[in-house]
Design brief:
With 308 residues, the chain is an alpha/beta fold. It folds into three domains: 11-92, Orthogonal Bundle (Arc Repressor Mutant, subunit A); 100-169 and 270-302, 3-Layer(aba) Sandwich (D-Maltodextrin-Binding Protein, domain 2); 172-263, D-Maltodextrin-Binding Protein, domain 2, CATH 3.40.190. 41% of the residues lie in helices and 22% in strands. It is built from ten helices and eleven strands. The strands form three sheets. Strands 3, 4, 5, 6, 9, 10 and 11 form a seven-stranded mixed beta sheet that branches. Strand 3 (100-105), helix 5 and strand 4 form a beta-alpha-beta unit. The longest helix is centred in the first third of the chain and has 26 residues, at 67-92.
């Protein structure tokens, strides 16, 4: 633990001492610092008394810096430099866009929305500086509460008190099937009851969202559990079953040979993407800008032509 001790000297006294050494005398230093010579001399005397060290030898012709004074003056200059640095950093941080924000993002969003969002950020003259961290929803929420994240891009309403979220947009789902599958027209969830449904492993909110729509009898979940959407896509292409894909993933994942995306007939099959933050976050302005850029990226992803 840091031990605090209040010094008996001031930064002003250190400035006076450095000025005397650099100007070669009390009179010139006093003029440079904008104070009277008696006042400056009195402050130097207090500093020497406080430190218990004579910094200057005083002579009728001027001053000499003692050996102890030389050593201490180097430390004084370092302290004053750090003081200036602290002042400059504080001035910089009055700009809400100066700090780099740590933003969590769930794995079923990250590969599809981050690249266009990063491009939007780079195209703006004034935009948030973001360090992206991929985590599942529960880890994102706990990292928000602990202060390890400033925001999180998730697809559920925050479950922990003290968090709030703004909506980025609604994202519909589509059915992912092998190319030669018989389903082609817009389908209902019940139409896929004979199929084995490939899902992500426990802990992914996309799995929970999909299961929430699977209320029909004889629902069949594949025993295979994937850790990522690209793996699910590969398994569908291999003919191991069908799956559900968020619309933002379609432009990228539909490039995979051997699969097709079939729209659902109900527009209510999907998820709401949200940007969560602490209720009393001090980063409201840059996070509002980030939400705007995310909405644009989502809109562009949803309007990008894909292979159905």
């Amino acid at each position: 633990m840091t031990s605090f001790h209040t010094p008996a000297f001031s930064l002003r006294q250190l400035q006076y001492a450095v000025a005397v050494a650099e100007r070669g005398g009390f009179g010139s230093a006093a003029e440079h610092c904008g104070v009277s010579q008696p006042s400056l001399s009195a402050q130097i005397a207090k500093l020497e008394s406080c430190l218990g060290v004579q910094i200057f030898e005083r002579h009728a012709r001027g001053i000499l810096v003692t050996e102890a004074g030389r050593r201490l003056l180097e430390r004084m200059k370092a302290v004053l430099r750090e003081s200036d640095h602290l002042r400059d950093q504080a001035a910089l941080l009055t700009d809400p866009y100066a700090l780099r924000l740590r933003v969590g993002v769930i794995p079923t969003i990250a590969p599809y929305l981050l690249p266009p969002t990063v491009a939007e950020i780079r195209a703006r003259d004034r935009a948030p500086r973001v360090h992206w961290i991929e985590e599942r929803t529960s880890q994102c929420e706990h990292a928000l509460m602990s202060g390890d994240l400033e925001a999180a891009l998730i697809a559920d309403a925050p479950s922990i008190p003290g968090l709030e979220a703004v909506e980025i947009g609604w994202e519909p789902f589509c059915l992912l099937v092998p190319t030669d599958h018989h389903l082609r027209a817009p389908v209902a969830m019940s139409d896929i009851s004979p199929e084995e449904l490939l899902l992500l492993e426990d802990g992914h909110c996309l799995r929970d969202h999909t299961l929430a729509f699977c209320a029909w009898p004889n629902f069949r979940e594949s025993p295979f559990r994937a850790t990522s959407l690209p793996t699910v896509v590969q398994m569908v292409a291999a003919g191991l079953g069908v799956s559900v894909l968020p619309a933002s993933a379609i432009p990228i994942e539909s490039r995979q040979q051997g699969i097709r995306c079939v729209p659902f007939e109900s527009p209510s099959i999907g998820r709401t993407i949200r940007l969560a933050r602490r209720t009393r976050s001090p980063h409201s302005e840059p996070l509002a800008t980030l939400a705007e850029l995310l909405r644009k990226a989502l809109s562009n992803a949803l309007n990008t032509p894909a292979r159905y």
